[in-house]
């Protein structure tokens, strides 16, 4: 027997114990602003940029259609491939190293320091590691340019004070070490993000797993290898995907610290595209660089999402 109940003065009737069904069209209204913003801010500029990449244009006048000429030139451009090689170094500095170090630190904070020193110490250390993520990259870059200055920089002065004057370097002006100096800065900047994500992921791991392993005599490293890593595999894929994308499109740090120098030793595709656009006024060629970079990032994003979905299914 079906019982109906009247609600309010509108005469709306529902089955007893069941909420009224909402029309499916109502959800589209909530999605509409986001979809419009996505189309206006992401899709439309990308389509316009892709069109410009098929033209020869200096930013004024009418662009002349050249087809795939910019892309053919790009494939033979040694400067582009050198900048892309530098991006691979940035992937190591901003994705691989922060993920590995952040994973070990998160496990240590969660499984060791939290047990022996309390949650307050863990919270303070976590905030200290995450602080560089809060700083604007321009501020962090300027501070590090002071630290790495060749004459009166803090690092060189410290080396001099402890008797290691022979180790003093022009950290950002020597082509042989400038890229590694920028990489070191980016490891410092990026480390807090994986740490926070991994610590959040560890919150959902059953504490009884650690307790049982500890009772069986498993040390910290064995608990880390056999419990922590398998349990937070989805978070690892998220961090690797996010940080790899950030590394491929890194711009602010290079602009503030070295401006792609010295001699192109720290040039990356995003900065190469910027200088091609605004300094060389080769807008069509700069658009081709940014289009290729966008396609690479989209492909890596899809691969990362697929790996994450597979990891969540196994978790």
Describe the structure.
- The chain is mainly α and 315 residues long.
- The chain contains 14 helices and four strands.
- A hairpin with a 4-residue loop joins strand 1 and strand 2 (12-15).
- Helix 3 (78-117) runs antiparallel to helix 4 and helix 4 runs antiparallel to helix 8.
- It starts with a strand and ends with a helix.
- Mean pLDDT is 87; it is low at 1-11.
Brief overview:
The chain is mainly alpha-helical and 315 residues long. Helix content is 70%, strand content 4%. The protein has 14 helices and four strands.
Main beta-sheet annotation? 2 strands, antiparallel
Compressed to H and E, one letter per element, the order equals: EEHEEHHHHHHHHHHHHH
Biggest β-sheet: strands ordered side by side in the sheet? 1-2
Unreliable sequence segments: 1-11
Secondary structure tally: strands? 4
User: Helicity, in percent?
Assistant: 55-70%
| Structural class by SSE content | mainly alpha
Instruction: Give the overall pLDDT as a whole number.
Output: 87
Q: Which geometry do the CA atoms define?
A: globular
Number of helices: 14
Head-to-tail CA distance between termini: 44 Å
* Percent in strands: under 5%
Radius of gyration: 26 Å
